[in-house]
């Protein structure tokens, strides 16, 4: 699960580290303000931050990764018993390698052939998407219980445990950018519109990634409010270098930490006060991650949790983020409209 963070660490490989150990319901406003300011500064300058001493214990994270591996170790015929629905509207169930193509396309480009062009290089990954069973617009697609006993119950609990952490982070973000109401963002979120994703990047010859004949995941930004990521110790996640546009730095594994990033919707919401940064998954950074004459990469597992607002909520620029030097940049939108626009390039539509 990566190197272990000490409580006094403030950065890891050039990415800020924020310690939430003293963030509790009863902690003084001054203590919460200190943590919130650190978080907001990281999200304004880098767009990514490690969060340590959150509320999901090591044992639960270990079980989540163990179950994820068991899922992807199932035969393809068994995984296909819970297939991702056709098209880009519903994101649930199992996506096989090549089904999804991640890019930084906005989905509003005037190029009818763009989706085909983007798919000329495939993403070599597979995933399984989980949401709230109460969110009827995005119904879950569960595996039969006998294939992986306890999987559904555990992942449902893990989904809501992750939401409890997300609520804490959204409160801190509100305080950090200067809002008096720490629940400002929470009023737009119910927890039901989020997405838990289990990701598996199979072993692949390093040369295929180096030559660009395939990718693990191309450079992109996330669409929603925030993303919380748990990663194994393989490495390969990179984020845009905040000091050198067009270059990337490694987001090195840090045991049990949440890798948090700002999503595009939150950047719009904050009038670019908060930064949504490009990131990608590529070769593991160390040569000992390769094996054999083909230099096969190590298998990689990660678990992102995407947080989005209530679908029909109108997202308008926060008033305190507008002044004479920072005029409003974005028109109001809803999460439903925005996510459908952004998702249109990632999955082939049923009629294609």
Describe the structure in your own words.
By secondary structure, this protein is of the alpha+beta class. It contains eight helices and 19 strands. The strands form five sheets. A nine-stranded mixed sheet has the order 1-2-3-13-10-17-7-6-4. Strands 9-14-11-12 form a four-stranded antiparallel sheet, with no helix packed on it. It has a two-stranded parallel ribbon with strand order 5-8. A hairpin with a 2-residue loop joins strand 1 and strand 2 (15-19). Helix 1 crosses helix 5 (151-176). The protein starts with 10 loop residues before the first strand and ends in a 9-residue tail after the last helix. The model has no long low-confidence stretch (mean pLDDT 88).
Classification by helices and strands:
alpha+beta
Average predicted confidence as pLDDT:
88
User: Please, how many helices?
Assistant: 8
User: What is the topology, as strand order, of the major beta sheet?
Assistant: 1-2-3-13-10-17-7-6-4
List keywords for this structure.
352 residues; 8 helices; alpha+beta; 9-stranded mixed β-sheet; 4-stranded antiparallel β-sheet; single chain
Topology at a glance:
Elements: E1 11-12, E2 15-19, H1 29-45, E3 48-52, H2 58-73, H3 76-79, E4 93-95, H4 114-118, E5 122-123, E6 126-130, H5 151-176, E7 195-201, H6 206-210, E8 214-215, E9 217-220, E10 226-231, E11 237-240, E12 248-250, E13 258-262, H7 264-269, E14 279-281, E15 290-291, E16 296-297, E17 300-307, E18 314-315, E19 333-334, H8 335-343
Parallel strand pairs: 2-3, 5-8
Antiparallel strand pairs: 1-2, 3-13, 4-6, 6-7, 7-17, 9-14, 10-13, 10-17, 11-12, 11-14, 15-16, 18-19
């Amino acid at each position: 699960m990566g190197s272990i963070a000490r409580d006094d660490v403030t950065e890891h490989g050039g990415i800020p580290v924020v310690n939430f150990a003293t963030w509790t319901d009863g902690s003084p406003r001054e203590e919460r303000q200190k943590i919130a300011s650190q978080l907001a500064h990281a999200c304004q300058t880098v767009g990514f931050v490690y969060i340590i001493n959150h509320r999901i214990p090591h044992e639960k994270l270990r079980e989540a990764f163990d179950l994820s591996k068991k899922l992807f170790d199932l035969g393809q015929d068994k995984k296909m018993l819970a297939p991702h629905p056709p098209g880009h509207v519903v994101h649930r169930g199992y996506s096989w390698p090549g089904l999804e193509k991640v890019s930084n396309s906005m989905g509003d480009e005037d190029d009818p052939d763009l989706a085909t062009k983007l798919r000329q290089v495939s993403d070599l990954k597979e995933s399984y998407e989980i949401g709230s069973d109460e969110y009827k617009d995005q119904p879950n697609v569960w595996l039969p219980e006998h294939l992986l006993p306890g999987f559904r119950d555990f992942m449902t609990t893990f989904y809501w445990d992750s939401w409890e952490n997300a609520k804490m982070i959204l409160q801190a973000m509100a305080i950090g950018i200067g809002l008096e109401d720490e629940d400002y963002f929470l009023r737009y979120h119910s927890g039901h519109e989020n997405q838990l994703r289990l990701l598996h990047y199979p072993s692949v010859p390093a040369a295929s990634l180096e030559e660009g004949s395939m990718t693990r995941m191309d450079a992109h930004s996330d669409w929603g409010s925030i993303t919380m990521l748990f990663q194994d110790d393989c490495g390969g996640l990179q984020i845009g270098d905040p000091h050198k546009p067009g270059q990337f730095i490694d987001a090195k594994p840090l045991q049990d930490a949440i890798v948090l990033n700002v999503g595009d919707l939150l950047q719009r919401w904050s009038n670019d006060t908060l930064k949504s940064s490009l990131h990608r998954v590529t070769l593991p950074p160390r040569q000992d991650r390769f094996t054999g004459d083909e230099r096969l990469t190590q298998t990689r597992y990660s678990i992102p949790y995407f947080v989005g607002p209530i679908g029909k909520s109108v997202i308008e620029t926060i008033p305190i983020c507008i002044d004479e030097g920072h005029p409003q940049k974005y028109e109001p939108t809803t999460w439903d409209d925005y996510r459908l626009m952004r998702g249109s390039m990632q999955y082939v539509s049923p009629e294609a």
